[in-house]
């Protein structure tokens, strides 16, 4: 569970950029969260809000888009989504899970989403030559500022 | 506008790391991983706080040198590395069992970035980075994001095949303004029972592209056993005594350079 450190870096990066542009405040921003990294949306939004207090980000509207991460096999064209394979990954990679301070056991893709290439193959042909469609972790877009 | 926040995360994660030593070569199989681990171990035995990061994401091996197989833990701030043998260590080898790690293209750049943005090194005097062969994403990422505290140690063998690749690497390091602390010539010689010094890969060099060879490491037939089976590097006494001397020199060179 490293959502706090992500939120902190997000807030600081935005505030720095906004200060550079000499603008008054941030009106809104979009947070896109892909399911692969298994990030907790509520914690992220809450953390961004709390950490924004007293900065030019305070009070900004946060639009959250949660998106199911999908994959496309480059060999056979099969498309599948993370939720279809999640349970199997949890089982097969149980012994590499990482425990956090609250006792939660996270798959390593929580920290390194790209390890999905190690943990999973195309469900149809077995190839590792697949690509990730959409967001795999967290992306910040459309930061709208008031000048 | 869109915002990239990874740089910020990286900055925070290495903010209490004093110096980063990149162990590189360009060539594979010359002993980068072995030298990285041994340097880390030797420097930490001299009382420094040392971390070891395996950046060879396709062929991680640093996990093989440690008795523990687990020990990462998560927190609000990121991922705590494994602490073993007096060293903090991060290698994808601990997380991938014996499965391939075929991460390519932009995903490769992203996992490399995540390796720096996620791992909480805490206070370190030295972070030693075991580099993969080749000159690509890894080298540029490290020199771009850590430039202020970065130095390189270059590993070669005396073979012309190795030297010709390493020469290009040193030129690139110069172009990227990475300080080269020195060249370590590995697999330099062994001493025959009759007492004669044998140099199977050639005479080697004293300098290359203006950078000096700061130490020559012997071929030690006990090294493999010591590293991966008994996991006691001191058992490879010929290699260990040489690298300990080199480690002192590396630290001295770095301290003079930054003073
Ligand atoms: N000085 C040495 N004496 C004996 N064996 C060595 C020596 N240096 C490296 N080796 C062996 O050579 C192999 C390759 O070393 P490694 O550190 O994995 O190289 P690289 O990281 O450059 O690919 C390993 O099996 C290692 O034990
Ligand atoms: Mg190696
Ligand atoms: Zn397929």
Structural class of chain B: alpha/beta
The CATH superfamily of chain B bears the name P-loop containing nucleotide triphosphate hydrolases
What is the tally of helical segments of chain A? 4
Number of strands of chain A: 8
What bound compounds does this protein have?
A: adenosine-5'-diphosphate, magnesium ion, zinc ion
Q: Terminal Cα separation of chain B, in Å?
A: 41 Å
Which CATH architecture of chain A?
2-Layer Sandwich
Please report the first level of CATH classification, the CATH class of chain A: Alpha Beta
Low-confidence stretches of chain A: none
Total count of domains of chain A: 1
Distance between the termini of chain A: 35 Å
CATH topology of chain B: Rossmann fold
Order of helices and strands of chain B: HEHEEEEEHEHEHEEEEEHH
Summarize the amount of helix of chain B as a percent range: 25-40%
Mean pLDDT of chain A: 94
Number of helical stretches of at least 4 residues of chain B: 7
Shape of chain B: globular
Strand order of the largest sheet of chain A: 2-1-8
What is the typical, i.e. mean, pLDDT of chain B?
96
Q: Can you put this structure into words, describing what you see?
A:
The complex is a heterodimer of chains A (147) and B (259). Chain A is built from four helices and eight strands. Chain A has one domain (2-146): hypothetical protein PF0899 fold, CATH 3.30.2320.50. In chain A, 31% of the residues lie in helices and 29% in strands. With 259 residues, chain B is of the alpha/beta class. Chain B has a single domain (5-258), classed as Rossmann fold. Helix content of chain B is 35%, strand content 23%. Chain B contains seven helices and 13 strands. Chain B has helices at 6-13, 32-45, 105-118, 137-145, 160-175, 223-229, 237-258; strands at 17-24, 50-54, 73-75, 78-80, 82-84, 87-90, 124-130, 150-156, 179-185, 190-191, 197-198, 207-208, 211-216. Chain B is globular and about 70 Å long. The mean pLDDT of chain B is 96. Chains A and B meet through helix 1, strand 5, helix 4 and strand 8 of A and helix 1, strand 3 and helix 3 of B. Strand 5 of chain A pairs parallel with strand 3 (73-75) of chain B, so a sheet runs across the interface. Bound molecules: adenosine-5'-diphosphate, magnesium ion and zinc ion (ZN). The site of magnesium ion has 5 residues of chain B, from helix 2. Adenosine-5'-diphosphate binds at residues 25, 28-34, 61, 186-187, 217, 219-220, 223-224, 227, 239 of chain B.
